[in-house]
Amino acid sequence: MTYHDLLRKLNDRPFKPFRIRMVNSTIYDISEPWMIVPGESSAIILANPAFREDKGYQVVHDWKTVSIHHMAEFSDIRSKGNGRERRR
Predict the structure, then answer these.
(1) The pTM is what?
(2) Model confidence over 45-71: pLDDT tens digits?
(3) Alpha-carbon distance 52 to 16, whole Å?
């Protein structure tokens, strides 16, 4: 995997939530584009939305830095339904 692969996935329009499976089988679900910040060889995955603190700075509480080269695959996160209403 390269950072170009990740950038292409992040820039799909419309954005589609996706799952990253790492070579060690760790899974990261990316449901919003702000949740991952790609670099050339690593990416920062944000677990919680950033917030503005009282002085106006943006802050995050939880993140992981992962190697892009250790990303094994991307897969789409499917919605929970198939578009049909449930029969009663």
Answers:
(1) 0.78
(2) 998 777 888 998 878 888 999 999 999
(3) 26
In the chain, what are the helix, strand and coil shares in percent, each to the nearest 5?
A: 15, 35, 50
In this structure, what token pair is assigned to residue 25? 């089988």
Q: How many whole angstroms separate alpha carbon 33 and alpha carbon 8?
A: 12
Task: Note whether 19 and 9 are within 8 A (CB).
Answer: no
Average pLDDT of the chain, as a whole number: 88
CA angle 32, 62, 45 (to 5 degrees): 45
Check residue 1 and report its DSSP letter. -
Banded pLDDT at 82 (limits 50, 70, 90): low
Tokens 């060690």 sit at which residue? 24
The type of residue at 64 is K
From CA 14, how far away is CA 7, in angstroms rounded?
14
